[in-house]
Design goal:
mainly alpha
Amino acid sequence: MDSMDLNRSEAQPNGSGVRVQRALWRHWGTPAGIYGTIVYASVVAASSGGAQNQADALQVLVFSLVSIVVFWMAHVYSTALGFHGADERVGARVRDAFGHALFESTGMLEAAVVPSIPLLLAAIGVLPADVGVTVSLWLTVLLLALLGYLVFHMRGRPVLLCLTGAVITGLFGVVVILLKTTLQH
């Protein structure tokens, strides 16, 4: 199974914090995880216009979670088709292609966990709805920046390059926030 797994032994530099970084990467740092984070933030931003109370926050949370599941299912399906179509073995099984696709796409669902927490807190009344949405969106920026930093750090790149990676990756989340602000105000 060919994958973007940076946890394989040939990709492991020396360092004490590498295990924690690799654990984070395993869950959110896959291409599907990064894409899922951006998609989830976009759906939250698009669906949150005027969220002012618990019911609005719950609606944003449910709509965003259902949307990410639909995007995930489409991603699994398209990845399976692409993997199966690229397999040169005549006897290749569709089941194997779907197994590969599920493995590669899990990060897309996991990407919704952290940004959903403030939305859930807003839905149960712990946070105001607009604060829950704002915190959710800025958490996606933080996650993206962290992932951008870690991918370069795990490869032993200089700190300046790691920070550049963090800024560029985090900017995807900032663009989502700017679009939300521009279109909804």
